[in-house]
Design a protein that fits this description.
The chain is mainly α and 391 residues long. It has helices at residues 2-47, 55-73, 79-91, 101-104, 107-118, 131-186, 190-200, 210-216, 218-221, 225-244, 259-275, 279-283, 288-305, 315-326, 339-343, 346-382. This is KCNKI protein.
Length: 391
Amino acid sequence: MASASRPLRGKRACKKIFWAVFPHACFILSLVIYAFLGALMFSHIEGNRKVNLSEEYRKFLQSLWYISRNLSDNMTENEEVFKEQIHGLLNTAERDWFVNPKDIWTFFGSLFFCCTVFTTVGYGNTYPVTRAGKYLCMLYALFGIPLMFLVLTDMGDILATVLSKSYNEFRKLQSKILASKLCSGSMCNKGDEAKSRAQSKVVLNEPLTIMEVLKSQPGVKRKPIKYRNAEIFEMLIARENEYAKPARNKSIERWSSCPELARGKTMSRVMENFDKIGKQVEKLDVPIVLMVLVIFVYISCAAAILPNWETRLDFQEAFYFCFITLTTIGFGDTQLEHPKFFLFFSLYIIIGMEIVFIAFKLGQDRLIGLYKKVISFCGEKKLPSKKIYPK
């Protein structure tokens, strides 16, 4: 019987893990499918558009030919004038006159564009030109941006839980090391400490009277009467609650013979997982200096890797590019020669945006706390002091 129950327990554990991971996987999969559909749509619309040579393009070519002819005739004369004319003419040029749309709007280029849209980065080096592409871009962003923020919030909960547990474990380890140093320095006796702890515990396995509790607790006798009575009352309430718990029969589960109950319980757990999205980020409480350090290390790692395929970028330029990307500023002043390689780095972008989002949330909470302290301090200063008149 024991060997037969082990596979059932393993299956139940796998089902619990699956339904716990299901909401997170659902959000990420939805975002991936949404990005691929957008890439197919924009590559078809913008990549297959016809390039019409407008009147402005013809005027541009005529002006360029005229300036180049005058420059060849008078090479040494009025050089500054020619530079100003060339500079002004190039400012009127449009990039679409010199670029084939199929070279820009490939599948990977369109996928990179979709990622810059719903992450609100928007570098500006790739943008829709056709009217249908502009309308679809607005509609695509209208649904893609909320989906992206939902993924950020959901994965931010996971990241906040990991950071919170890691920080708490580090604090516990730090306190244990400090306690061990103090204990070794003061030559404390562990046996006496364990004995005193055993004496201080209250054993309430059987109903006890108040006098028995007093006799079993020497530490309680030394306290004042009101604190002694309050402790005794809390102990008795704890004992009553322990005995009032209904006995649970672990051998027989209600839903073991009724799959409908198990299915309903699983669905309720899944619904609870959906309802708890964003709660862990609200509970996170770690030092803001730690988050700044995490962001610096995170961006530095990418800045060291990115110049391997973007040869025009050094470490400083790559660091600047990653920071502008993760903060969704996206100036577009630094352009990528191989965006499809950085596209495969999209997981890095999403996780980095979550880290920056958590850091901004912590900074916001700290600012609110600072404002509260300043307002309360100013309010106390402005309150008139009470004058005491002699009787």
